């Protein structure tokens, strides 16, 4: 299984372009190879000054380690990243190296725009978390080298749990359902959810689907798989909570946000796809003594949360493949993994490297990595989300049953996948 993150309040990463440069793709204007390596990077470090300073330091560090190589890290905006990167790749003037997320790899690999990075991670391959490498793998080859890992987990408001007389935070679906009536009597909803069409399903419905043992795509990737008994079970669980008031009505307009929404306003007791940044905001708003970060929510068949790596991919048309591979190798060394994690608030994609964080909940999120699933990367993953989200809304609002909603989404999804063969 593999797909694509969220919170507008978080530095969760992913990617794409600037104006096409005359010297793009590690070549001079005449197309000859050079000793330059051009990297397209995105604002994965939230503070612009800190982001600039970090990559300036990387340029100096790499050039000192690799004499004679001119490294150019060009900062690009997140806006329209996929379209711009596709244009750059198609023109032959893209970067040598670019930051990619798992959900981008299937499309660009299928188009022949990427070359494997296996040689760049040859020495460090065995040190990576298996799930991180799997997320970056297509057809048995790795197409992006993980340099950081995002993670989400459960976040609880202790004040609301105490008010309802709940001593232990609900960690399973059954415990959550049992807690809901108590919280309702105490004037609070139970579970935060994001049902807006702008919300990523990796941060909303898909984790529930995975916890029920379901999948988004079948093994072939040519058909959807969520219209299954497990999928119906997951959506029924959600719909029952919504209709009983355990999921707040504001869920319909929440786009994976914390601030100014039900959880942030202390109107709901818990969320299940919350980031370290959310926990920090909660500590500031609720008081640190009222914040609990727990393990990933456990469903009837699996305990799983969402979290994915960000990694460096290499342009298939680079004029300097050796230099690009050396940069990939440099950025996946322990020292750079630690510095990247500290600067961006990320966690380590390597099992032998721990990123030291000062946050009060660093240990809890570190532990949550053991249950972090990067989704199901697929060339049509984002398009499919646009078809599924309205059907989930239809089920929540009672216009369709969970079974009807998923069946409708599957019909449209299978048509979409058939057109892309």
| Beta strand % | 5-15%
Any idea of the CATH topology of the largest domain? D-Maltodextrin-Binding Protein, domain 2
Q: Summarize the helix and strand pattern as letters.
A: EHEHEHEHEEEEHHEHHEHEEEHHHEHH
Major sheet, described briefly? 6 strands, mixed
Which percent bin holds the helix content? 25-40%
CATH architecture of the largest domain: 3-Layer(aba) Sandwich
What is the terminal separation in angstroms? 19 Å
Apparent shape: globular
Structural class: alpha/beta
CATH class placement of the largest domain: Alpha Beta
State the helix count.
14
User: For this structure, what is the CATH homologous superfamily of the largest domain?
Assistant: Periplasmic binding protein-like II
Could you tell me the radius of gyration in angstroms? 22 Å
Outline the low-pLDDT stretches: 1-33
Mean pLDDT: 90
Number of domains: 2
Total beta strand runs = 14
The quaternary state of the protein chains shown equals single chain
């Amino acid at each position: 299984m593999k797909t694509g993150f969220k919170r507008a309040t978080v530095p969760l990463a992913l990617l794409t372009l600037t104006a096409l440069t005359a010297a793009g793709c590690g070549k001079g204007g005449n197309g000859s190879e050079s000793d330059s390596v051009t990297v397209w990077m995105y604002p994965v470090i939230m503070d612009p000054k800190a982001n600039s300073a970090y990559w300036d330091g990387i340029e100096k560090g790499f050039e000192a380690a690799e004499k004679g190589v001119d490294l150019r890290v060009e900062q690009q905006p997140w806006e329209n990243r996929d379209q711009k990167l596709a244009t750059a790749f198609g023109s032959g003037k893209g970067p040598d190296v670019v930051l990619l997320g798992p959900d981008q790899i299937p499309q660009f690999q299928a188009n022949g725009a990427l070359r494997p990075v296996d040689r760049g991670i040859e020495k460090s391959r065995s040190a990576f978390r298996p799930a991180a490498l799997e997320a970056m793998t297509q057809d048995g080859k790795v197409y992006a080298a993980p340099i950081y890992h995002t993670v989400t987990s459960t976040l609880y408001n202790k004040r609301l749990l105490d008010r309802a007389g709940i001593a232990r935070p609900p960690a399973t679906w059954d415990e959550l359902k049992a807690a809901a009536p108590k919280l309702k009597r105490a004037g609070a909803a139970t579970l935060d959810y994001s049902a807006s069409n702008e919300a990523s399903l990796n941060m909303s419905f898909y984790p529930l689907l995975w916890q029920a043992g379901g999948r988004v795509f079948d093994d072939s990737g040519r058909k959807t798989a969520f219209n299954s008994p497990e999928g119906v079970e997951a959506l029924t669980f959600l719909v029952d909570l919504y209709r009983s008031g355990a999921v707040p009505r504001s869920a319909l307009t929440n786009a994976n946000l914390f601030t100014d929404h039900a959880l942030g306003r202390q109107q709901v007791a818990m969320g299940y796809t919350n980031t370290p940044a959310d926990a920090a905001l909660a500590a500031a708003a609720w008081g640190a003594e009222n914040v609990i970060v727990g393990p990933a929510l456990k469903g009837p068949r699996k305990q799983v949360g969402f979290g994915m790596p960000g990694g460096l991919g290499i342009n298939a048309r680079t004029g300097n493949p050796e230099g690009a591979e050396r940069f990939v190798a440099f950025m996946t060394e322990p020292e750079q993994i630690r510095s990247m994690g500290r600067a961006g608030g990320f966690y380590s994609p390597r099992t032998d490297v721990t990123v030291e964080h000062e946050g009060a909940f660093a240990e809890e999120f570190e532990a949550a990595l053991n249950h972090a699933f990067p989704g199901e990367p697929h060339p049509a993953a984002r398009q499919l989300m646009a078809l599924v989200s309205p059907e989930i809304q239809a089920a929540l609002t009672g216009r369709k049953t969970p079974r009807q909603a998923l069946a409708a989404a599957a019909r449209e999804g299978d048509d979409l996948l058939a057109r892309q063969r």
